[in-house]
Specification:
Chain B: This is Carbohydrate ABC transporter substrate-binding protein (CUT1 family). The complex is a heterodimer. Helices cover 71% and strands 1% of the residues of chain A. Chain A is mainly α. By secondary structure, chain B is an alpha/beta fold. The chains are: A mainly alpha, B alpha/beta.
Chain lengths: 314, 445
């Protein structure tokens, strides 16, 4: 893969351009793009900028008289806020588990679906289904499956003789944590599979043929051929799935509400509660920006390690 | 098919879809505050969506009686009521008359969304006719802001048939007795977990947790809103210790309660899955409805068991009707408020009685206790003496007028969940709650 920037705008040496009349190219470009820029500005930049502006304020609808600009106090307060720190710990653990499972399972599924076999099309369609499910519905579905009284899982395990009585799976901190992580993975895994499948389809079959001639085994073919070609798709997966896991809210909220105790109280749940239930828009916006900044830093980390490596090796 | 006909057909479909979506679009814009005021001089009346068809029916009756007062009633999903109403007020497009939760009242007064009702005709009479706890819940800084919609008190609800099967003739008076009776039911193989509660984290309050503390004569805060749960009075700590023991040692509280929300709990009670729960009195009307409950007639009301067996209290809540500060139709809106939360021309609190008769909702008016129709209705689902006794003992939560209450409630729910799932000790739990209050006070100072 060669990544070269195509420079089409620079005037060639010696070329004689006729002097332009009226407005110049740059001005015309700005003029023509202005409507789009205004729309983007209104729909994207303004809300983002306003949320940052709010995060610099003490702005709680319950205390309108105390509203004021406080610089970075909301951010500084987070450092000593035990609720936020606990939530951050839970979030980091959640992201690590979700990301690990997503990448491993997604790669495995993509490799399977990349093979030619009878019913591959049907299987590919089925794998995509969870992605079509909204987070709330996903949460409700897994809640029904794991229900302590009427859950399908309890019924199945009881029928198989693996448990003596129905279990309350979501009531232990570790059980609730791993079940919510699993539900999140199930919901977002198809996206990973699609990206990785697309990556796999770009690998020239000659490379595998050459590897086979060189007597490379399955593991060697994966590490020497497949993986280098998947680095860029994996980069996209890592960035987007990290963002998804950091923002995970609906599935967790429906499944556990953030409990038991603080076990699944990820930062997005805390964020939504702070803004919508406690009507604290200043602090809530600061939470949002913390999520954004952390995700940004991690993404830069991914890019700096994987992107360069991908360019050199492929 | 030619391109022209294809385009034309698509165009028709597009226009059709656009036309079809206009009502939805306009309602979305209205919900976003884009609709502005009613502009017709009508009273804009908002409430959460509990039995909205019945509310509309009652509002229609008001309009028939008061043809000069047009009313536009908007039910809002309960789960979003507070947020959406706040958003409307913030956008300057709030309702004229509205429902208010007692735990939202102080914040909404501080935010200057509401206006006091003192001095308006009939308000003094209403406040003289209701229980003091309801009057207190609707008063902020000495000013009265609401006319009562409904009130309820927490009680113990038990299944008499299940108790009888286990050879138990009377409901428990103390928490130890509750645990022993539950153990007996468990040992008899009738139910694995006799006690059910709603203990999934919610943005609403857990009445049973407050009720257990108040029943034992304790409190979580003093009158000034300072935390006392970790003070010299050990009531909160002891109640927490009992909860933890019942959930993790004797295991009479179902571990699944951490996943349980109100509707599934109601279903479980109606299907004899639990022998005991603590809930609002009006739930009994539903529990004892033969059309809806497998065990109708067997579910009885009792005082909430206390640590020492002496009943001294329970917790109440109050829902009210209030008047927007910026309403431009104050007189008309207040007439609606009086119809909904006051007395009619015959001196009867019509709407409160209407709700009791239709849905069994608790009433704040003492006068209705003596009403023969109410007495007859009450006797079909609860013991009137205990029902009234609970109303007399009940008091509102001590912290609901603090601006940080909703945050505290959520932390209390988390701590109780930690107790029920053995993640903390009662001592650590009360310390954690006290620390939470200190930090909330700092945050809100």
């Amino acid at each position: 893969m060669t990544l070269t920037a195509v420079d089409t705008e620079k005037p060639r040496a010696g070329s004689a351009r006729p002097p332009r009349q009226g407005i110049g190219d740059t001005a015309r470009a700005y003029l023509l793009n202005a409507p789009a820029m205004i729309v983007i500005g209104l729909l994207v930049a303004y809300p983002i900028g306003y949320s940052f502006w709010l995060s610099l304020h003490r702005y709680n609808l319950k205390l309108p008289a105390l509203e004021r600009f406080v610089w970075f106090q909301n951010y500084i307060a987070l450092v000593g806020d035990p609720i936020f720190l606990s939530s951050l710990r839970v979030t980091v653990a959640f992201v690590v588990v979700v990301l690990g499972l997503t990448v491993v399972l997604g790669t495995a599924l993509a490799l399977v679906l990349n093979e030619t076999f009878l019913g591959r099309g049907v299987l590919r369609s089925l794998v995509l289904l969870p992605w079509a499910m909204p987070g709330v519905v996903n949460g409700l579905m897994w809640r029904t499956i794991f229900d302590a009284k009427t859950g399908a899982l309890n019924g199945l395990l009881l029928q198989l003789g693996l448990i003596d009585s129905y279990q309350a799976w979501l009531t232990s901190p570790s059980g609730a944590f791993f079940i919510t992580a699993f539900a999140q993975v199930w919901n977002t895994l198809p996206f990973t599979v699609i990206i990785l499948l697309a990556g796999l389809s770009t690998i020239p079959s000659e490379q595998y043929d050459a590897a086979k001639v060189d007597r490379a085994g399955v593991v060697q073919r994966f590490t020497q051929v497949t993986l280098p070609w998947l680095l860029h798709p994996l980069l996209i997966v890592l960035i987007l799935e990290t963002m998804n896991a950091f923002r995970a809210f609906d599935t967790i909220y429906v499944l556990t509400g953030g409990g038991p105790g603080d076990a699944t109280n990820v930062i997005a749940v805390l964020n939504v509660r702070t803004v919508l239930t406690y009507t604290d828009f200043g602090l809530g916006s600061a939470y949002s920006w913390v999520i954004t900044i952390v995700t940004l830093v991690i993404s830069i980390g991914y890019i700096s390690t994987l992107y360069q490596r991908g360019r050199i090796e492929v | 098919m030619t391109p022209e006909t294809s385009l034309s057909r698509r165009r028709v479909l597009q226009l059709g879809a656009l036309t079809a979506s206009l009502p939805a679009l306009s309602s979305v814009l209205a919900a976003c505050g884009g609709g502005g005021g009613s502009g017709s001089g009508a009273v804009k009346f908002s409430g959460w969506d509990y039995e909205s068809a019945l509310v509309q029916q009652n509002v229609d009756r008001f309009k028939q009686l008061n043809p000069d007062v047009p009313v536009e009633y908007t039910p809002i999903t309960s789960a979003q009521y507070v947020q959406k109403t706040v958003a409307e007020f913030t956008a300057g497009d709030g309702p004229d008359a509205l429902y208010v939760y007692d735990d939202s009242l102080a914040g909404w007064v501080a935010a200057e969304y509401l206006q006091p009702l003192d001095g308006l005709p009939g308000v003094d009479d209403v406040y003289a006719g209701i229980y003091p706890s309801n009057a207190e819940a609707m008063t902020v800084d000495g000013k009265r802001y609401g006319l009562p919609y409904y009130t309820d008190s927490q009680c113990l609800i038990y299944n008499e048939a299940i108790l009888a099967k286990a050879g138990i003739s009377a409901p428990p008076k103390s928490l130890d007795e509750l645990e022993q009776q539950s153990q007996r039911i468990k040992d008899a193989g009738i139910l694995e977990f006799p006690i059910g509660l709603t203990a999934q984290l919610q943005d609403t309050w857990w009445g049973w947790a407050w009720g257990l503390v108040f029943a034992s004569g304790g409190d979580v805060f003093d009158a000034a809103g300072n935390p006392v749960m970790d003070g010299p009075d050990p009531t909160v700590r002891d109640v927490f210790a009992w909860l933890q023991r019942a959930a993790t040692v004797t295991k009479v509280i179902d571990p699944a309660v951490l996943q349980l929300l109100p509707v599934p709990l109601d279903d479980a009670m109606k299907n004899e899955r639990y022998a005991f729960t603590i809930g609002a009195r009006y739930a009994l009307r539903d529990y004892n409805d033969p059309a809806r409950s497998k065990t109708a007639g067997n579910l009885k009301i009792a005082y909430i068991p206390s640590l020492d067996g002496n009943v001294v209290g329970t917790v109440s809540n109050t829902r009210m009707y209030a008047l927007s500060k910026d309403t431009e139709v104050k007189d008309q809106a207040f007439r609606l408020l009086t119809y909904l939360g006051g007395f009619d021309g015959d001196g009867v609190p019509y709407t409160a009685k209407y709700w009791f008769q239709k849905k069994g909702l608790g009433f704040p008016f003492r006068k209705l206790e003596q009403d023969p129709e109410v007495q007859a209705g009450l006797a079909t689902f609860a013991d009137p003496t205990i029902y009234s006794g609970l109303a007399s003992l009940a008091r509102p939560r001590t912290a609901i007028k603090q601006p940080w209450y909703s945050e505290y409630e959520n932390e209390q729910q988390k701590v109780v969940q930690q107790l029920l799932s053995n993640q903390t000790s009662p001592d650590d739990a009360v310390k954690a709650l006290s620390t939470t209050v200190t930090s909330l006070k700092q945050k809100y100072s």
